[in-house]
Each structure stands twice: as structure tokens, then as C-alpha cells.
Amino acid sequence: MEALEETEEVEQTPEDANSLNISDFLDDLEADITVEEASVPSDVPGFDWSSIDTSHLPSSYKTNSRQEKELLQLADHFLKQYTHLCPDRKPLFVHPVNECGVQKFVSTTLRPTLLPFPELYYWSGCASFVCDYLIMEPLKCPITLPSSLYSPTTILRYQRGNCFDFTVLLCSLLIGAGYDAYCVHGYATREMCSLDQTQEVCPLLRKPPEVPEEEDPNKYRIKYPLEPQSKFELQQKAKKEEEIEPGQEEEREEEVEVEKPKRDPLHGLRVHAWVLVLSGKRKVPETFFINPFTGNHHSTTDECFLGIESIWNHRNYWVNMQDCRQGCKDLSFDLSDSICWEIMFPESNEPSQLPTESPKKDTDDMVSDPSDALVQWGCCMEPSICLTSLLPTAEYENPFSQGKKVILYSKAKLEKWAAYANGDGLVERLTIYADSDCTEEVEVKEWFKHREDLLYMREVNKQTQLITDYFRPGHPLLLKAHSYTSLEPETGHTVEYYHTARVDGLWKRFENATEMTEYFMGRDDFLHMRHIELGERDKKMQKAGIRTDANSRPIVQIKEYFHRNPEKPADEDIEERIFMVIDDIIQLTYHLEVHDTIASKVVFCRVIGREKREDEILLSRENSVTYQPWSSEKHKNMLHLYNLLWELRAEQKLLKQQVRDSEAEMLNILTVHEDEEANIKLSVSMYNTAKRAQQHEATV
């Protein structure tokens, strides 16, 4: 079967392919194809597989039992029929040699295993573990099958392998977890086969798909006009976009050419292996692919997958008989369809039609049902090494054999570390660049684990130097996020809280040298924002060296905004309240009713020419201004205004104290945050006995 090929650029007949000198072709490709293997640094020496130790492996790895020999004979007979009926098809991957040099049927290499880690019960956890734990090794020849397939036992021990090794290990974990998973031998693009993700957008930066808005079924509903736009302004904007200098156009064209990947002469010929997960088991809604190198989920119509030769699991082997000239987008994955898939061991109750070359045995030793062949032969094999014993908890928690893993994306770099590898709890860092050469940093995102201060993410804007820290619930100060450029006081801080845990409902506060703004949610008094204007400190006291907390900034003005309280009349429900502390003016603005156009207002001013005394309220027609056109007569009564002013004076005194408390709280947050960064502590679960023992030895 021929996979999807670039027939327009590279025309190649089967006769030419057979006579192709592969070594010369690959030598020519070295000058044209540059592969960035993100998971394998260039300074790491190559691994010598011929020097591995196989003495610890059981005898079933070094010899074939009688049942296995019969199975190989059946597979050989199937291959002879296959090559006779399909002479133009590429060779199948059926029985390569293992690490001991013994031929093994590929289905017997799979070891369904459920490892004792909660994350590995789901396909995403299994895929992430395999791509992080193993080091990717490219195939020796990108267009031919490997000559060997090592067992998952050896692959786990040495933590490296090619795409087939990755796939067999991942498929073993998925089948053990209950998924209907299969290993796939097929063809893929150069970027997927070589783990080159420099042309892809980092998954952490991908925007979620937009959900289309449902159209209103009521066609008679009034459609309000959109925001008006000036046609003249739109024309001027279009002219400016058209008036681009020729030099800028050439630069853009050069950038596009640089970002566009080079043509691959081996497009459609590159051998790759990946995992197929069918829908049904484990409530999988839709069939999908998993790329074992990245652990990413792919649709079966993804254009990166160019064709399939065969698939297998631990029970059977299927050959694809469908046309793959359009890639995998039109393939049917109904394995019971004998027209689309040729099965090696027919799953029926009838006796096998495939003759064997082995001598006749007793009827008790013969396998009457081919569908149970692998099950019966597998049970007769000697037990293999348990994969669980090869993966202790310490190695599972530290999957990166080289200390960390680096993945290069388009204008981004992702770095990963194991938990507790860094003293500050750093486990991931994403660096975003402005250019394709990754020289100018724009933003850095970092993720943390096991920190006692509950910090789990940090964003740093390299252009503005703005740092934003994010905390999990449970922080002693109820912090949710903290944005700052410096931990010095009054330099511009924005703090977000878990407001449901606070009594006052405060969810956000912004403070700088001249103002403070607080935002509230779910309050009984319907307050949703408070804005405070602050003056400059006394310079004489600053020169005298008096502390900042003792030399407070004077409060100039306090503004409060309230939502509508439906239980009150509009002319009694305050919308805005302003306390001009220095000018001694209080201004109230009330909500509007549905039919009103002008809001009611009340203003209390200071009496001119009279010295203000504490706890004294002087009210007259001269220092009070009211405008309440829709209110009743009681609101125009001086006694009512006097009581209102008395309440506002008490409220103003209380607000001033709350402002001082807010300033003290911000200072405390900065002090605690600075201390947490200077003395970072990592927490260890009480169930992690190995790590707690290491921690105890370090403290002794």
C-alpha cells in the first residue's frame, strides 16, 4: 500500500522505489533537513544497545515455546499469502527479534499492565508518562522498519526507544487500564516522526474553540442596531493598511518563507508508529490517535498521519486493505469489516483455515479456535518480569532521566522538571518569544508544586516587568492572585482574594502611592466598589525618619458605589456616596426608577467662616443642598436631613478606620510575601514515606 505522497513534486514509480539507494538518499537529506529533537539534547552521546545486560531476563525472552513456534509459523504463512496477493505493498511488521535476538510475534510483546498510580488509570496520564519518561531515538532509516522490537521491560529499564518502543509501552498501559487500544504501523509527516514541534503552537497557548452562538428561534424579536461606525474612518484605515512600503512587504514575505517548512523529499514514506484508541470501552465517545512522542490527542482525520499498514493488540493482528492516498481521513476503523481489514486469526467458532507447517500433534495440543490462539499460547508462556516492579514510586515521580525536558515550539520554549527537583518547587516554565529565532523574550510563565505558600503559577511580562503570582485556596491571607513590579510598598499592587472566605466580600484591591480601589461581591449592603484618593505624606516627618505606618497618607476623598436594592424605593437607595474628607463635603446620588431621567441628590457642605469642631453637626439651609424631584415631603424635612447627616458622619469615621486597616493589610501582605520568597518551603505528603525519609536525613 502506498501512503500519501507528493506526486506533484516527487514522481516515483514502484520500480524506482525498489532501486532507490537509501544510504545515498539520506546523505543528501542531511544538508536539506534539520531536525530539532527537543527531548534529546545534542550533547548527549548515543546509546549502545548492543551492550545492554539481558542476563536478568527470564527464559521466555531467550527462547520460544512450542506454542510460540506454532504462532510464528501461522504468521509466516499469512505473510506468504499477503506478499503473493499484494506484491506492491510494503513489508509488514510481524515478528522482529527482541533484545535477546529471538523472533517474537508483535502481539506477544505487549504486556497489559495497570500500574499503581492514579494518573495512569486515564489515557492522558499514560501518554504523558511515556513521553516524559522515555528518551526519543529516531529510526536508523526513516523509511524502513526497525529490525528489532524490544520488550517494555527493557525499554522501561533503559528509558529510551524509537516510535515502536514508545507505542508498545503506551499500548500496554492503556490496555491494562481498560482501553480498547492498538499499536499502529503506518506513515506520518517529517515533523511528527522526528519530534519537531517548532512549527506548532504550544498546547498551553492554544485558545479554546469558540462556541457558535445559537440563533434566536423567535424571528419576530426586535433586532437592535449595532454600534454605529463611521464609513470615512473605515476608508481611512483601509488606505493606511494599503499604503505599506515595498520594503515592509518584502520583509513580510521573507518571514513567511522562513516560517514555512521546507519540502520533504520523503513525504509519505517516513515510517512511524502510534496508538489507536477505539470508542466504546472506558466510555470513550470517539475513536482517536495518540502520538507517543508527545502524548497528544489527535483526530483520525489529522493530516499529519499519512497512511496505515497494520494494527495489532495483545490478541490479534489486522492489515489495512483501504486506500490511503488521502491519508487516514477516509479510513473506517470497524475491525469486523473483512473488506477494510484483513485479520490474521479469524475471530469465529469455525476451525482455522490457515494451514500450519508444523508436524501434526495430538488433538489435545491443537488449537481449534484461532480467536483464542494468543490467549492460550500466552498462558503457556513463562511469566515475564512485572512492569510494576521496574517502576518504583521514586522513578515515577522523577521521570526525566536527564534532569529536565525541553520542548521547542513556534516562538515558545517549554521546560519541565520533576517534583522536588528545584528548591522553589518549579516544575514547568514556558517562555514566549517575539521572534521565530527565540531571542527576544515577551512573557514567562512558571508552574510550581508542593509549595507551603500555595503558589502554583507565576506570570512575568518581560516588557513591563509586571509579575503576577497565583495561589491555591487555603493561603493564610486568603490570597488568590498578586500583581506587582516590586515588593516595595506603594509601587502599584493588585491583590485578588477568595472573597467567599472573607467576611467583607472583598475580592480585589488595587493600591499605589496616590489611590486605592477595592471591589466587593455578595454584600448585604450592595456595595460593589470603593475608591480612595490619598495625599502626600508630611515631608517634615519623612525627613525626621519616622516610619511609614506612623506617617500615614492623608485621606482626600472616599467614593462608594452601590448596586440597586430592589427592596428600597429608588429615591432612598443610594447609588454613589462621596466623602470629601479635606473639604468636609458629603454628596449622595440615588438610583433612578425605570421612568426617571434625573437622579435625586443630596449635598452637605461645611459652613463657611466657622471653625469645625469634633462631634458637632451644624445643619442649615445654607450648608445643605437637596434635589429630590420624585421624593415625598418627608425627605425635604430638616429633621430627616439632620438624622441622615448624623449617620453619614459616623459612617465617615468608620470608613477612615477601614482605609487605615486596608493600608496595614497591604503592608502585611508584602511583608509575608517577601518572607515566603526568601524562605521557600516545600510540603511532603504524609503518604510519601521515601521523600519524608530523605527530608528527615537532610535535617539531621
What descriptors fit this protein?
C8orf32 fold, seven-stranded antiparallel sheet, 16 helices, 20% strand, elongated, Papain-like_cys_pep_sf, differentiation, spermatogenesis, cell projection
Beta percentage is: 15-25%
Shape: elongated
Distance between the termini: 66 Å
Strand order of the largest sheet: 10-11-12-13-14-15-16-17-18-19-20-21-22-23-24-25
| Overall mean pLDDT | 81
Note poorly predicted spans.
1-23, 29-44, 349-374, 377-384
Helical segment count = 16
Rg result: 36 Å
Number of strands: 25
What structural class is derived from the secondary structure elements?
A: alpha+beta
Approximately how much helix is present in the residues? 25-40%
What about the largest sheet?
16 strands, antiparallel
Pfam family, one: CEPT76_peptidase
InterPro entries: CEPT76/DRC7_peptidase-like_dom (IPR056290), DRC7/lobo (IPR033551), MORN_DRC7 (IPR056291), Papain-like_cys_pep_sf (IPR038765)
Region (Disordered): 1-21, 235-260
Organism: Ptilorrhoa leucosticta
